[in-house]
Amino acid sequence: MNDSLHTENSGNKRVKKNFLVQAWLVIFLSTFFGVALAAIQLTLSPKIAANRLNETLNKVPGLLLGDQAAVPMKIIKRSVTAGAGGVKKTYSVFAARVGSRSVGYVVKATGQGYADKIDVLIGLDGALNKITGIFILGQKETPGLGAKMVDPAWRAQFTGKLTDKPLKVVKTKAHAENEIDAITGATISSRSLCAIINQAVHDVRGPLASGLIPSGPIPSDLNKTKPGKGPNSPSNGHGSK
Amino acid sequence: MADQPTPLERFINGILPENPVYRQVLGMCPTLAVTNNLKGAMTMAGAVLFVLLCANVIISLIRNLLKPHLRIVVFTLTIATFVTIVDRFLAAYMYQMSKQLGPYIPLIIVNCIIICRCEVCASKQSVFTAAADAAGQSLGYALALASIASVREIMGTGMLFGLRVLPAAWPDWVIMVLPPGAFLTLGLLMGLANYLVARHSAVEKKARG
Amino acid sequence: MISSLPFLNKTMKGNNVVLEVAPSPHIADASFATKKMMADVIIGLLPVIAMAVYMFRLYAVKQMGICLFTCLAVEAAFTRMRQRPFPLMDLSAAVTGLILGLSLPVTAPWYVGVIASVVAIGIGKVIFGGLGMNIFNPAMVGRAFVMIAFAGLMAASGYVNPVIGIDAITQATPLTAFKQMGISTPLSDLFFGLVNGSPGEISALACLIGGLYLCIRKVASWEIPAGVIAMVVILAGLSGLSGQGVVWAVGYHLFSGALLFGAFFIATDPVTSPMAPVGKFIFGAGIGFFIMVLRLFSGYPEGVMFAVLLMNAVTPLINRWTIPTVMGEK
To answer: Is residue C134 a part of any domain in this protein?
Structure first.
């Protein structure tokens, strides 16, 4: 590769030292592999993006109307920015309609848990008064303890909670309206999750209720006929296969 | 190259006598990180099989074109390409698994097993031998991952492959699915493997007299 | 044990004296000295055991019995496997079992004690080559294992059981009550031990009596508990500046939790603590530091176990720093 050195050497050696002679295979392979990877990326990326979106969209009907819900609904994704002072948080909010009636909103919230970030979907009814359910999209809490937050039985506690008072984690049996039973041995995970939910509900309630959703670029309409089917993203040129 | 190992020898070697995890102690990072359940471990082993097979075959095909001082660059390029392919395929067709394995699929690029096989076998022997070698090594790797993951998943959750195998009264040993469980299980199983090997060779020596 | 506890193997070959460097404990007649020492530890533990039995009745007896029996059985099994002479008589496994039994919640199910004992002897001691070779305190290795494996049974909630009819067990442990609910327990209760907790740790008085006996008998080096207590007094005093007052904070942190039990009985294990007096003091102070950091800033109410294990890990380093000057040398 050091073809600038040894200039006093004979021509034959110079040719041998020429970087093309040395590295043609590397150059050829990297070009070839690069093109192959680009092709694969182009083919698969719509599918991967759809996977990401579907992960949330598939949960929307169940979170708003209960698990058996199979009502055709129209889901509109928008983003809501909230937060006081310099700290602004942006939430993805999925507004769901059946016909022209609003059936509620699903808010995607992220926050710090005990071990790592927790991603949670929060279902709110159309009037924003009640939590209709939560779903844990992603968490890395301690297996066997904090990770039990994905357990449907534990999550069910949140269903029907009113949004006007912040939720509180208690270690003994929950009595009051706004109390949540902690997961045994994982009080911190339980508290973190409740804090994330409280914050998100607090942040999105105002903007959603006043209808002042700061709409950036026109949100893409995601028409859905059945839960479980992928969306047809109209903006994307490459159709998913 | 008469004295080089035959394809069959290469294949058998990889499974037990030169098991990448227990005998060569290679690829420890994914071995420790993804073995808390069998499903994830087997997906990882499958990914390694694909990458190793493809990389070994390609390297073997171009082995006569390799410049000695640039060979590692070529190995890395080839491996990285196939790892990226696996990563994208998992994200597209096994999204949940891809989320679970997280960075450990991209990290196959730096997995020593693969670059070691490219160096030791594929860059010196024919395509068929290289493929047999890749299959043997991957099978050995899969066996090692499966043994560790089975112990950890059964003790840690009472389940195997997501199905309950122990009665519900079994108290889950949470530590087994956490990182310390990986080290303990690997250490104890490696000790057991060494013990068996030592006993085997002692028996063989005795038989030979 | 005799063969695995080497001391000074003098091999005379002409004028060549071969000094064999061996891990601690360095004692002349190993098996005899170890046994005497361990017997002293057991005597030192008696007030603690008495207090545990007084507070928790049969539950404490059961927990200690399970740990004691399993530790002895595992030690016997492993030494047989390694074809070593029968070592139970040096009592070291018995001490491990007792300390383990005293540090587990009395309400923990039987298998917790069994698994903790197997791990303590098997992974904590035998894997390293038996007594004198282990890096970590075996009892704490066993306890840490079950602490993480069965966190639900071993964490704060594991100590509370309103059903079994012993008053102390209906309340949270003092440190948990303080950390999570802001309730403080009267210092006198903490001192005498009329509180909930692991059976060994409840009574500060019993730990002091037993601990002082060990120090006077020179079985435990006084530098280690002194280091722990000095560090805890300083840090607890600092933490008390912005709260209930310095004196109260110092008293509370000293008498609650496993601090005194750990300082006198766990940290003083001669195998896993440094050899030089200065090193012992540094070791103790390090334990005190980590205990306070864990108590004040971590999710756990108590930190003695993790503090001891952490300092065990740096013991070789402390040993290297604190090589005492040989007499006659500068």
So the answer is: yes
HSE at residue A124, side-chain half, CA atoms within 13 A, is: 27
Q: What span, in angstroms and rounded, lies between the C-alpha atoms of A128 and A131?
A: 8
Domain co-membership, C173 together with C68: yes
Q: What element of type H or E holds A108? A: strand A101-112
Q: Which residues of chain A neighbour B71 with C-beta distances below 8 Å?
A: none
- pLDDT at residue A234, rounded to an integer: 38
C25 and C169 in a common domain: no
Residues of chain C with pLDDT under 70: 1-32, 86-89, 156-158, 161-170, 179-182, 328-330
Kindly state whether A187 is in contact with chain C, defined as any CB-CB distance less than 8 angstroms: yes
Integer Cα distance of A223 and A231 in angstroms: 7
- Portion 144-163 of C in contact with A at CB < 8 A: 151-152, 155, 157-158
What letter represents residue C51's amino acid?
M
Q: Where are the domains of chain A?
A: 1-40, 50-222
CA count, 13 A, side-chain hemisphere, A71:
19
Place of tokens 């309400």: C107
| 3-state secondary structure at position A240 | coil
Whether C289 is in a domain gets the answer: yes
- Tell me the two tokens of residue B31: 């071995």
Domain that holds residue C20: 1-31
3-class state of residue A141 by DSSP = coil
Name which of B103, B101, B47 is nearest B79 in CA terms: B47
Q: Which residues of A touch B36 (CB under 8 A)?
A: 143
CB burial string A99-130: b at 16+ within 10 A, e below: eeebbbbbbbbbbebbbeebbbbbbbbbebeb
Q: How many angstroms separate the CA atoms of B57 and B59, rounded?
A: 6
B181 domain-assigned: yes
Contacts of C149 in chain B (CB under 8 A): 173-176
Q: Do the domain assignments include residue B1?
A: no
Looking at every residue in chain C, the average pLDDT score rounds to: 81
The mean per-residue pLDDT over the stretch B176-202 comes to 90
Q: What are the residue ranges in chain A where pLDDT is below 70?
A: 1-11, 67-71, 83-86, 172-174, 211-241
Question: Is residue B2 assigned to a domain?
Answer: no
- Interface residues on B facing C, Cβ-Cβ cutoff 8 A: 171, 173-176, 178, 180, 184
| C135 shares a domain with C18 | no
First to last CA, chain C: 38
Domain count, chain B: 1
Are C27 and C159 members of one domain? no
pTM of the model: 0.79
Count CB neighbours of B154 within 10 A. 17
> In this structure, is residue C232 part of a structural domain?
yes
At B10 the pLDDT is: 85
Residues C224 and C298 in one domain: yes
Closest residue on chain B to A147 (Cα): B174
Instruction: ipTM value, please give it.
Output: 0.82
**C4 and C67, same domain (yes or no):** no
Question: In terms of residue numbers, what domain contains B182?
Answer: 7-208
C25 φ/ψ angles, rounded to the nearest 5 degrees: -80, 140
Asked if residue B56 is part of any domain, the answer here is: yes
Nearest to A74 by CA among A224, A228, A230: A224
* Torsional sign, CA C252, C255, C256, C261: positive
Contact indicator for A109, A196 with CB cutoff of 8 Å: yes
Contacts of A231 (CB under 8 A, 6+ apart): A50, A53, A54, A57, A222, A223, A224
> Residues of A with CB below 8 A from B80's CB?
33
- Domain identity same for C126 and C1: no
- Residue C124 falls inside a structural domain: yes
Interacting residues of C21 by C-beta distance below 8 A, sequence separation 6+: none
Do C25 and C85 fall within a single domain? Answer: no
The pLDDT tens digits for C144-154 are 999 888 877 77
